[in-house]
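User: Show me sequence and structure for the first protein, then do the same for the second.

Assistant: Starting with the first protein.
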Amino acid sequence: DSKGNIINYVEFSKKGKEKVNDKFEYNTNGKLLKSEWGRHGKTRRSHVYTYDLNEHLVRREDLNSKGKTSVFNLWNYNEGGCLLSFEMRKGKQQKLRRKWVHTYYNGCDRKSSTAYNGSGKVLQTWSYDCKSEGEKLNPKKNETQICRWESVSQEYLIKVYQTFDENGRIIRTVSKYSIQDTLPLEQKEYNEKDELLRHFVCDKSYDKPLMSGSYRHGKEMYRYDYQYDGETMISWTHSWHGKIRSTIKLDYNRQGNLVLHKWTKRKGKLRWMGLVELAYQ
């Protein structure tokens, strides 16, 4: 459309038969209202989205191939736009399956989060009372303590988030932001042995990644590197243990719309090329 959103995505087989036909609808502000996922001439599933006056997502309905509701999600916010609760419902009767409730100190500074099952039983609680570096984290059944603190240098704002993983081991996430406009630049995740687990670098937006990688025992496992022409992504490479495994290249028309996908393996051998028909308004 006029905002660059894809409204129709079509793929064909080598014999010219339609394989994929996905359709998307948006409101005047570019927010997604409906998505339909078509395969071999039939709609397999669709999603319908509803927003409040502040453009916050308040409802998402997932429909199956017969147009019947399979999943129903609800979001509720306070006057400041902070999320108060999230509900997952399922089936025609919209039976409650899970619910999360959040409380805050001031503004959107979260105090606690609690997860409930469909019967109202507490499944897990997250506490955000820990505010400074060095406070001791004590694993408790059905309760997770979270520590957060900040530091400032002449160039960066550093935010640290420390909690437990699903196995009760301490995980520390260190995020770096630009000091001028507090936009994201880098994020690293460490285990309790101070070994690097994940590394992510972006250009002042999570939507513009430059590099992302995963590590084990401090050694790199896989890595993705992204290249741009201005604000437009033109390629990315996938590496495994330091060796490039594949490269994706993207070509665009004069209007900036994607028209060609190229996927090459190691040594530059072409593995797949997709000339995709994209319909724009």
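Switching to the second protein now.
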Amino acid sequence: MNAPASSTNKPYSTIVDSLLQEEYQAERLEQRSDERIGFNRPVAIRVEQGRCAISGFTKNLSAEGMGLVLDTMLPEGTRASLRVHTLNDEIICFPAQLVWIAAFGHGWFISGWKFLNETSE
């Protein structure tokens, strides 16, 4: 993601630039082994301990993991099935483990999940 370009002709340009700069800085701080692509879909997170599904949204996606925005704080290390709907109304399940989670505004959390191999323990 490139740093935002300022536009002085619009009333919200300074605020928007500030928000985009926050996003740019956050993206630079994350250390990933694989580039993630922006990807926005609803997701259901089914925690292995059998709790109810937690709803959220995908933020980005790579072959190794997924970034999610959730309304529930989970402990790092949590294992879950990430259930993403395709545009063809299919469900794709990704077994994954929560690597990190942080506050993302009032009542929301941003999180990084690493996909697990089916044979992972």
